Fold:
Amino acid sequence: MPITWPDSADEAISGDLTAALAYVTPAGGAVVAAVAPIGLRDRDAGTVSFTTSLGFGKKLERIKRNPRVSLAYHAREHGFCQSSDFVLVQGDATPSTEPSRDYLEQTLRPHAARFMGPPKEGKLFWDRWLREYYQDRVPVALDVQRVSVWSDLDCGGTAVVHGAPAGGDPPPQAEPKKGTAPRVDAERAARRLRSQDHVLLAYVGADGYPEIVPVTIGAADADGIRLSSERPLPPGGRRAGIVGHSYRAKLIGLSARQYTGWLDVGEQGALYAPHTESGFKAPPNKTLLLFFNGLLAKQGLRRARKQAAGRAAA
Structure:
């Protein structure tokens, strides 16, 4: 039987403009990024969806290899949800392999227009420039296994769980061969994360599904970044990801900082050592934003096709 979730959780799932997506890396860590799910879900079937560009082939390959994925509905700005619930959806993802024009026109376009207004169109330039951005998107559907709901956005207190029981704390992981110390400037990373409106940590839970937890950035030094959270973090060391992001209405103007690294939780609290860093900042101008979106989509799809051709020839 499909998992069902209450109306209060569905208000967030259907109404939040952004959510945090976490998926598992081959090394057993978690990558977390901000996505715009635009209310895509089917309560009768027990599925929740988001879309991604074929240009993000690395993400799609990792999800195909390990379909255990999580979405955290954690931010209320510029959407339609008035609830204070933090909603964590965990399930098994099935990415589509080819874009469907019917899906894009009949499902994706009206959902996107509700949140972000009508798409940019123009036969002389925009239709061609945004072809990869709009038409080479594919849906990723989660067969929901668990919906956990906290009554506040900081995840204080105990969650109400719908579906499979939570698995408890995961055991510590083996340390990386290159060591656990920061590989990028931790103090700079902390400053960049503090500048974002939302910061979330992700790690792999005991049952293999990513956990996503809102965290506060504390002091930082050469050893790493101090983290605090209302929700208890599992003791020991493990690979983990962090994303910090901010956004404006209709996503016209947004920024994000994304990290992977090592989380160590002990008697002195939680210490995060960043190992990799990426990020972007989009201009608060719709025309410029769409221009760069079109450029990135073209570059990403070209790169993905080149990598696929290389794998086929190997």
Q: What stands out?
A: The first strand starts at residue 19 and ends at 24. The mean pLDDT is 90. Helices lie at 7-15, 57-65, 101-116, 126-129, 131-135, 186-194, 286-313.
